[in-house]
Write a structure and sequence with these properties.
Helix content is about 80%, strand content about 0%. It is mainly α. It folds into three domains: about 80 residues, no CATH class; about 100 residues, Receptor-associated Protein (Up-down Bundle), CATH 1.20.81; about 60 residues.
Length: about 260
Amino acid sequence: MLYSYIAKHIHGLRLKLRQAGIFQEPEEYVKATLGTSIMLSIGLFFMFFFFTLSLWAILVIPLSIPLLFMYFVKFVDVKIEKIKKKIDEEIIFAGRFLIIGLESGVPMHKIFEDMEKNYEYVGYYFGDILNKVYLGTSMEEAVNDTLNASPSPNLRRLLWQVMNSLKTGTEVGGALNSVLDQIVREQAIAVEEYGKKLSPLAMFYMTISIIIPSLGITMLVILATFIGLKVTMPVLLVLAILIAFVQFMFLSLVRSSRPSIST
């Protein structure tokens, strides 16, 4: 079947869907994504045909279907990265909450319940562990299963220490403190590196998004006056959309490169 064939050739799609919180089988996701891509491509065809009144607009369909499909497949990675960043914003406080609870002698399931209530993203995974335990899975197996489904390496390191404690029965507080200290150092380094990137990014933004468009449009108007080229409103509209798209992409780049830290 076509959907199964495509799903098998998208590396790690099943795990990515699980990490992104998309509860569909890979074949179902591919089927839904391909169907959406086809419908959007048909919509793009009618839009281009309306503006151009040319049958060449039919080429939009075969060109846009694979592009849209790859976009939706890539959307899974984007969602995973978003969840990872949200987890990393909570991980330090959630980890310290876990350590305090364990060192105070609070039962582990009670700590997990409190974490689920107090931390939106990290708490979701501890709540998932409890749900599996309530359904009859052992605590060790539940932690291991949730560990594999986590998109955040930092959360996996935290859960790994918890699982080791469950296996060996040893005190986990010291190991968790070491993990949290390492995460704090890594976040500090990421903030420092981000600060170094901001100046070149600002210069790039000034050049690509402000200087070149303003000078370019001015030169276009001057040249059009000399050579008799007619600059119509649709041309200016397309240029405005293109400039807005470049600025949007730049802002998205800055946002995506910003490190996630616990604040």
